[in-house]
Amino acid sequence: MRKGKLFVVSGPSGVGKGSICSEVIKGDENINFSVSVTTRLPRAGEIEGIHYFFRKKEEFENLISENSFLEYAKVFDNYYGTLKDYVFEKLDKGENIILDIDTQGALNVKANYSEAILVFILPPSLDELKSRLMNRATENESELKKRINGARAEIKKAINYDYIIINDDLNKAICDLKTIIYVEKLKTDKKVIENILEEEI
């Protein structure tokens, strides 16, 4: 059996990475989102093991001390992280995993698991990104400026990624991510070759 692949997708807020990943997963039963661990309380409708693994702060910090995470971060008063055991178990079963996280988390994943495939979603331009954020009508002018400055900082780190997708057309961007997943599936797998050579005829 081929081992699964871990795809780490990043991009600035408003670039459409969530929509792209969701559509790719809908069309392929062998690829799923990674389920993160968090210390925040469950929201209405959220299910343990489906949306998140909900843990107390003390439990999370114990997992940190045991080096159990591929990456983790503290956002305001809550921790979020990706468990090594969860991801590796899925990969060993031949499942592909998509992890939608920021650039800092992505580079931490790559440092802990060199086989991770990093994909960065770029906007066609910062002006277009600003327009998309404005259309969401969820940020004021000051917040928009922070978002754009944050986008610049993230885009600078895109040079460290394996693939770049420019989301100037959502359907094309979805197709691009599907293509990356397919191409990675076809890469040389030494284990598969060894298994065939070990067959007795």
What does this structure look like?
This protein is α/β, with parallel strands linked by helices and 201 residues long. The protein has a single domain (6-197), classed as 3-Layer(aba) Sandwich (Rossmann fold), CATH 3.40.50.300. The chain has helices at 17-26, 57-65, 84-92, 103-112, 126-136, 141-156, 170-186, 190-197; strands at residues 6-10, 31-33, 36-38, 52-54, 69-75, 78-83, 96-100, 117-122, 163-166. The protein has a five-stranded parallel beta sheet with strand order 2-7-1-8-9, with helices on both faces. A four-stranded mixed beta sheet has the order 4-3-6-5. Helix 1 (17-26) crosses helix 7 (170-186) and helix 5 (126-136) crosses helix 6 (141-156). The radius of gyration is 18 Å and the shape is globular. It starts with 5 loop residues before the first strand and ends with a helix.
Helix content: 40-55%
**In this structure, how is the largest beta sheet organized?**
5 strands, parallel
CATH architecture: 3-Layer(aba) Sandwich
Distance between the termini: 20 Å
Mean pLDDT: 92
- Across the major sheet, the strand order is 2-7-1-8-9
CATH fold group:
Rossmann fold
Radius of gyration: 18 Å
Overall SS class: alpha/beta
- How many domains would you count in the coordinates? 1
Tally of individual helices: 8
Q: What coarse outline follows from CA principal-axis ratios?
A: globular
